[in-house]
Write a sequence for this structure.
């Protein structure tokens, strides 16, 4: 808070003071990955973005290379911190196997050379606390935070974009594992005899049939998706394009939807969610979303098909950017509000 004196003509005694919130008093840095990019934003306590930075990373980036990119990103988004503003910490939202308790990024199919990356090193280099989490988990938690009614339901969150992943919450409690990875829908085996190698090294994963990295870039297959310019990695931009294009007559996309629906059905049979949230550019296409919904309504058991709500969240991963830094603000506010005896 900051004081703003407001003087009134002929007002006796001390000038009246109006307390105004200063959103820049507390800030935090959020790092995320999108496709093969590292993105950074600095946020205020009111979730406003003050600075942002983006850097592409090659497929062969190492542990050291990724940490150096994180350092560069942090420096870029903290260049213009206002006097009196406090940077509370850095939250890193990742894909793959993420061990948040020990701050280790165990592995990721997207960057195969990254193995057991210790973010404690980044913490020491910055002199700032660092938290890490799975992007899907953080995005789902943000949705639950902003929509309290869904904390009483079982919610399956599914991302279909550069990769394919999921997260699940039962009555507001996130499903977690000691391994650091859950709901890896993109690496369900959908074709055991497939000659297509996934980014994870295995063959026959759902991602080889449906993820954008495969549909955009698998040139030797001769089955590229000629629907949008090659090389676009921004999922918000891709979402805008997918909303406008007609994919109903594209055989590659029809095949991808078929495999995706089959995997989603199998995941439903395990969790029986009340709500399925879709995020990512592909499901922003109205035809694709309707194909998924019709498939599920047709194939699910009669006692379940009318009990599932399907929702599309447009705009890409925005929630995880914000929810991942909540712990920093919460802890600092608690320290401000703590009663002190003098």
């Amino acid at each position: 808070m900051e004081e703003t004196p407001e003087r009134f003509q002929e007002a006796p005694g001390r000038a009246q003071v109006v307390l105004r919130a200063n959103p820049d008093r507390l800030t935090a840095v959020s790092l995320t990955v999108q496709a093969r990019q590292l993105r950074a934003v600095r946020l205020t306590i009111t979730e406003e973005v003050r600075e942002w930075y983006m850097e592409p990373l090659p497929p062969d980036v190492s542990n050291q290379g990724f940490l150096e990119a994180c350092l560069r990103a942090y420096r870029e988004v903290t260049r213009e911190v206002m006097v009196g503003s406090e940077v509370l910490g850095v939250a890193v939202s990742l894909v793959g196997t993420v061990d948040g308790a020990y701050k280790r990024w165990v592995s990721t199919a997207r960057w195969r050379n990254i193995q057991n990356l210790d973010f404690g090193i980044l913490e020491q280099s910055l002199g700032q606390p660092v938290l890490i989490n799975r992007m899907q988990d953080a995005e789902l938690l943000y949705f639950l935070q902003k929509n309290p009614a869904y904390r009483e339901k079982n919610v399956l969150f599914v991302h279909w974009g550069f990769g394919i992943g999921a997260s699940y919450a039962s009555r507001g409690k996130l499903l977690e594992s000691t391994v650091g990875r859950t709901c890896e829908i993109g690496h369900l085996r959908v074709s055991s005899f497939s000659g297509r190698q996934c980014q994870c090294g295995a063959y026959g994963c759902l991602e080889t049939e449906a993820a954008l990295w495969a549909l955009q870039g698998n040139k030797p297959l001769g089955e590229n998706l000629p629907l949008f310019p090659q090389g676009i990695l921004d999922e918000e931009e891709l979402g805008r394009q997918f909303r406008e294009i007609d994919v109903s007559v594209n055989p590659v996309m029809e095949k991808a939807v078929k495999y995706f629906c089959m995997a989603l059905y199998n995941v439903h049979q395990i969790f029986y969610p009340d709500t399925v949230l879709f995020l990512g550019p592909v499901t922003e296409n109205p035809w694709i979303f309707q194909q998924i919904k019709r498939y599920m309504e047709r194939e699910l058991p009669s006692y379940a098909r009318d009990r599932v709500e399907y929702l599309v969240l447009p705009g890409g991963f925005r929630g995880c950017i914000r929810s991942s830094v909540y712990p920093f603000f919460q802890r600092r506010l608690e320290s401000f509000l703590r009663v002190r005896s003098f």
